[in-house]
Every structure is written in C-alpha cells, then in structure tokens.
Hints:
The protein has 644 residues and is of the alpha+beta class. Bound molecules: adenosine-5'-diphosphate and magnesium ion (MG).
Amino acid sequence: xPIIHVLSDLLVNKIAAGEVIERPASVVKELVExxxxxxxxxxxIAIENGGAKFIRITxxxxxxxxxxxxxxxxxxxxxxxxxxxxxxxxxxxxxxxEALPSIGAVSQLRIVSRRKDAQAAHEISMAGERLEPxxxxxxxxxxxxxxxxxxFNVPARQKFxxxxxxxxxxxxxxxxRIALVHPTIEFRLVHNGRLVHHLxxxxxxxxxxxDFFGREMADTLLEISRDxxxxxxxxYVAPPAQSRTTAKWQYLFLNGRFIRDRIITAAVREAYRGLxxxxxxxxxxxxxxxxxxxxxxxxxxxxxxVRWRDGNVLYSQILSAIRDRFLNTDLxxxxxxxxxxxxxxxxxxxxxxxxxxxxxxxxxxxxxxxQAVMSNNISPVATNDNDAExxxxxxxxxxxxxxxxxxxxxxxxxxxxxxxxxxxNQPNMTTxxxxxxxxxxxxxxxxxxxxVAPETAIQVHGCYLVSETAEGLLIIDQHALHxxxxxxxxxxxxxxGPLESQRFLLAETIDVSPEQIGVIESHEETLHRxxxxxxxxxxxxxAIHAAPSLLKPERTREFVRDLLDRLxxxxxxxxxxxxxxxxxxxxxxxxxxKAGDSLSQPEIAALMAKRDRVERSTNCxxxxxxxxxxxxxxxxxxxKRTGF
Length: 644
Ligand code: ADP
Ligand code: MG
C-alpha cells in the first residue's frame, strides 16, 4: 500500500496561504500589487473592522475576460510568466500565481472584472472548496476584489489577529511600502466608511513621505540620484542628526518592491559611520532599479528578500552615493548644534536600541574615526567664528570620548579580569569604584568613592564636576550622574503608582508612522503609568494631552517620539519589565541636566547630596561610568614627583 498521496487543491492553497497571507494587511498587499500589475492608475482600498470582516480593492486597470476570471483563482495560474527564462526578467510585482487561490482558500472571495473593451463585467466567487460558476454582472472597467470573513476556516490564524486599530496600522504600513515607490498612482484608503488616506498622484517620493510621516521629516531629506554600473539609485537620506532609535525608518525598494536587505543596510550604516551615534539608526528611503537578470527575487514567498548577483557593486554604489551626498552637503551646522548630544549626551540617550539584538559590531572602532570626522567638519567654521568656544567644545568632546572608552574597562574589571592585569590598560586614570585592594570576591556593584566636601565641587566646561577625595580627585559626568539619580527616583515612584503627570492646556501634536498609532492602544496601561495621555489625531499624528511633570515641556515631543519608536519595535524583547526599564531610563536621560548646562552652586550641592543616596551611582543606567578617579599617586607619577 503506498503511503504517499497527492494533496487536494484546497490543502495546497491553504498551505500557500500560510506563507503569504498572515493578516488582513497581507491580503491588501497582494491585491494592490495585482492592481498595479494590471496597469491601474487609481486604486481604492476599503476595509471594515480592521479588514478581518471585509476588504475591497477597486482598480481601474486592464480587467480580466471571463475565461481568465475562471483561471485566476486556480493554484499556480498566472499571466505574468510563461517559462523559466521569464523568471529572470520579471518586471511585475507578482509571478507565482498564488495570491488569489490562497486568499480564496481562507476567506469568502468575490472578484468582479471587466476589460475596457467589454460590454459587461463578470464575477466569480470562491469560499474554501466552493467555487461558484462565472456569471455576468454590472460593473465599470477594471477589477474589484472583495474578501469577506478572512480566516473563517483557519481558527489558529484568527486568534493571531489583533484589534481593528492595530490591523489598520499594519494595512497603512503596507500601503506606505507600496505607495512610496509608486507616487504617480492615486490611492484611497477607507476604513469603516471614513477616508483615512487620500494619496494624490505625485511626481516623486518626497510628497508621499510627507503624506505618511509628516512634512517635518519630508523636508529634511537629502535627495540622492545616480545611475552607474547597472544600478539605478534614487531616493532620500536624512541628515545624521535625524537618526532614530530603531531601524524601522529604512525603506528600501528594489524594482518597485519593498525589500529588507542586509547588504544595503550595511552600506547605509557604513555611510553614516562616524557621523552619528552608532546605537542609533539612519532614516533612509531608497529605491533601486536593476536589470532583473542580476537579482533573484524568487527566494521568499512574500518576495521581501532577494539574492544579488553582485553584492559588492551594490554595497559600494550605495555607500559612495550616500557619502558623496554628505560631502556635498554642509552638515556643519547640524554637527555643531548637536555636538554635546553626539558625544557625552546622545550616546547615553540611545537606550531604545540597546537590547534589540541588532548588535553593532563596529561600535568600538568608531570612537576615534567619529571624532576625526566631526572635528574636520567643525574646524573651518568654528576657528573663524569663535576660537575659544571651539576649544571648549574640543575639550568637552575629548573628555566625553574618554568617558566612553572607559566603559569596556569597567566591564572587564568587574566581571572577568583580575584587577592587576587590566589596570595596565588605563595607566593614567582608573575608573571609579576600583578601590585599591580590590579583590575579585568583592561585590560586583561598584561603591561610590567618598568625597571630602562634595558640596564644594566645581563645574568645569559646563559638563563635569570636580571634587576632592581622600586619595585624589574625582571627575563626575554631570549628565550621567543626574540620569542615574533620576532613574532611581523614577523607578521608585513607578513602583508606587502612575508617575506624576501634568496636563497641557493645548495638546501638542506630533507626526508618527501609522504603525505607531496602534501602539497607543496596545500599550494604554503602560502609557498611563508613565503619566502620558496620548490620542490618535488623524491618520498619522497623535496629540499629547498630558506628560510626566518631570520632563521639561520642550523635551516632551522628542521623548514621545523615541518612546513610540521603541514600543513599535517588534525586534525588541517582549518582557514588560525590560521595556519599562528602558522607558524609565529614556525618560531619565531626557529629563537630566545636559552637557553644557551650567549649574549654580546650590544645584551642584543638591546633585552631590543625592549621589550618596543612590545605588550604583557609579554608572549611568546604560552602564557607562558616571565618574573617574584621579589618584594622588597617579598625579605624582605624572608630575614626576616619584621615582620608579
Ligand atoms: P500572480 O499575481 O502571481 O500572477 P495572482 O494569484 O495574484 O498571481 O493573480 C493571478 C492572475 O490573476 C494574475 O496573473 C492576473 O492575470 C490576474 N489578476 C489578478 N488580479 C487582477 C487585477 N486586479 N486586474 C487584472 N488581472 C488580475
Ligand atoms: Mg499577484
């Protein structure tokens, strides 16, 4: 008795649906792609209740004649390729002939279509195994596809569907991924009878960026356009100062299709290297065109991943295009303005990306090249304008670098290497909390060094506090220390109940991505406990009604924006505790005094008084040291007062 049998069409289709139809947004993607392939110029997406109940896509494309209508719902039926050669010359979005049968297998599908020259439209219906015969009906030229009761026969998938609001945000994200690279096509998205998006035809991607992500972002973008060595590259990159805490803001397109690609991502990252904090992510919208023969798109059922014939050319072309653009752009004002942020401050503010798993292997070697690039850019302007200020910035910067580089040593000393072995790495200064006589059996939590008269500490360069210790002197990074103190206070407050919050007379609004709107709903409880009150304000903006009192009003928008990025980041670990920790340290960072803030003596005294009461005051919430010890012995050695 043979044990192998051929699967039924329904089962084959359901298996295919398992790969390509994950949620209502996947249906929208497949159907809109079909409409584009049919040469449509106007496409309307209408959905009800997030799309699980009802999705309708109407286009003004070529339409199908009745015989094609009968075939289009059959598995592996397509008009887009005929033979193997065609597979390497694909100009269309589809070619696998899977979408319609897959959708039909897991929903109630109805297609009405009419070719331009035909007298009447025809329709076909399918639901699971049931296929109705074709019949004539009324309808305009073009095609309308209706999908009802998605996953009615796949309870497992139904369970994964989220709230309508979340599903709509997925659909909008899907629409963005298509509409950004097809700016000449008009799109409408209607949810529960309400027009959510109306994208009018445009001649480039920039207006579409504004449609989805707001004018503010669209206006800062730098255009890139080149066509060399078989690779067409068009799009926009944001200046390094506009970086974000997640990589979500990288929209890459190949031959009109949204893709994710490691080579391109690596090239982009390399292009920004040294120009921004390595823990943050650039914002880019890049559309590539390449001869289909040089790329294999048949790697993944959703075609999100591709295989390149020559990844090296791709890498070097993208890298040089972005680098050239930066060279031709005066980034100087931004760098000067954000200098303190790029060094001591912003490097600590990038909590959002710390545990996300997108490990950045280039971090360590960056420090020196970052400094080089920045000072190169700064010098021409700064030396002319204000010598003294420039020198102060340089001092700040090199001290900030020093604090940064001290980090790995802290880890080494407290977690692995014996103190004698590692102390040679850092001959001039030792990090705080490495008391003489330290042994590896001691607690791994560094104890703060005792100060002789903390209240008399003095501030230098608007960044650091210097104070005397029994054995020498201590240099404290004011931002890092304040951040650590606030973090502890916030954590304590948070465990007692919602953070104290302050209502705004006039709500502030910010532009957000569609996906982030869904975040507000799904994290309502967390946001409430953080003292935030947010609400959707149109399809791509939110209103801030109340914010934690601790935040300075002018930093609220920035905080909320980073927070939403963080919450919408799907790669981030799911543990609520970790996310809360992240958010609190983000808030602490935003609320803390910054490098460059000058402090009065009472303020200094207050900060120093709190230092003693805070656990782990030796490190900021991200693990970097808050202070450095300079011992008398070391000073004497440096001044050659002791002989060896
Ligand atoms: P594919 O797009 O991979 O060819 P589909 O299952 O998505 O597979 O569609 C099957 C076929 O149905 C397409 O090849 C196309 O000929 C036809 N078709 C689907 N949607 C439309 C549409 N909106 N307008 C015209 N023809 C369509
Ligand atoms: Mg298709």
